[in-house]
Amino acid sequence: MNASELRDLSENELEQKGKELRDELFNAKIRRAAEQLENTALLGQLKKDIARVETLLTEKRAAGQGA
Q1: Domains in the chain: boundaries
Q2: How far apart are CA 30 and CA 38, in angstroms?
Q3: For 17-66, what is each residue's pLDDT tens digit?
Q4: Tell me, what DSSP letter sits at residue 5?
Q5: Whole-number pLDDT of residue 65
Q6: Nearest to 9 by CA among 47, 39, 19, 27
Q7: What's 6-67 look like in SS3?
Q8: What's this model's pTM, rounded to 2 decimal places?
Q9: pLDDT for the residue numbered 67
Q10: Burial bucket for residue 46 (CB in 10 Å: 0-12, 13-18, 19+)
Q11: What sign for the dihedral angle of Cα 33, 31, 49, 7?
Q12: Long-range pairs for 6-11 at CB < 8 Å and ≥24 separation?
């Protein structure tokens, strides 16, 4: 997921996407602990995607207050 795709989403959609990503990260951590996760790079990618979503949410909220 890249930032340009995320910029097209509304604030509510970004919040929902962030929740989905956090849930997916939690499940991946559980699978890693149980030694069932084959692609450990997934953890880092999910963290980066969550950070992108949070950054865009902050930008949208700041733009909304400034207007």
Answers
A1: 3-61
A2: 12
A3: 999 999 999 999 999 999 999 999 999 999 999 999 999 999 999 988 76
A4: H
A5: 78
A6: 19
A7: HHCCCHHHHHHHHHHHHHHHHHHHHHHHCCCCCCCHHHHHHHHHHHHHHHHHHHHHHHHHHC
A8: 0.88
A9: 54
A10: buried
A11: negative
A12: 6/52, 6/53, 6/56, 7/56, 9/56, 11/57, 11/60, 11/61, 11/64
Q: Are 20 and 59 in contact (CB under 8 A)?
A: no
CATH number for the domain whose boundaries are 3-61: 1.10.287.310
pLDDT at residue number 62:
94
Q: What is the chain's length?
A: 67
- For residue 52, give the amino acid letter: R
In whole angstroms, what separates CA 28 from the centre of its chain?
14
